[in-house]
Amino acid sequence: MIRREGIAMVDVNAFDAVQAGLNCDHPEVWLFLLRALSKGQPVSRTSIAEALAMSLPDVEVALGTFADTVYDDNGDIVACGLSLLPTPHSFKVCGKELYTWCALDALMYPRALDQVVQVESRCPVTGSRVCLTVGPTGVSYVSPAEVVLSMVIHGKKGGCCNVRSSFCSGVHFISSKKAAATWMSQHPDAFILSVPEAWQLGNTVVQRRLEGAAGVTGHD
């Protein structure tokens, strides 16, 4: 059951709506990019083509479905959900400080990377620091203890990396239920999830992508 913490019930179909909005047409490219970016270096189109046995034109077509992807001056990828460029959500993996586009990404990616990750963010309401330890099987540490996530329903299928403005900009770690009530008063289209609920949502999305990317090679 999804609920607005202490405020009002939310339609149970919200889970399905969020999942549908985060579809991924090329999960094998998404997974390779995620794992390559986690090494802390830009990713070239050529490396994608070689790792996935794709032609460069096919790589271009796939990348065209990830419209929010960020490139450097050399044309290499520096952000596609996981980012080499700073965002409000710090994501420390294997000793490298990276970033994610939203709070849900920070809960999803440890499963896809099969790594334990240190996440640090700021509550957009209070400005207070939020810290989590997230692994492939769940969240083992969260501070403050009352942290929840703000969430929005993307109105249409936007693709896994095409929703930065319409979805990611509304998905944050909120430091407490009181702060969440303030956020809800300012963002009536949002709803609130507990950390376990949000992790379960992200895990379901990642599981679908991993199944779609079965057989991906060259990302170790």
TrEMBL record:
Domain Alkylmercury lyase helix-turn-helix: 30-81
InterPro entries per UniProt: MerB, MerB_HTH_dom
Keywords: Lyase
GO MF, any single term: lyase activity
One Pfam family from the record: HTH_15
Keyword set includes Lyase: yes
Domain of life, per lineage: Bacteria
Full protein name: Alkylmercury lyase MerB
Annotated organism of origin: Geomonas diazotrophica
Lineage, uppermost ranks: Bacteria, Pseudomonadati, Thermodesulfobacteriota, Desulfuromonadia, Geobacterales
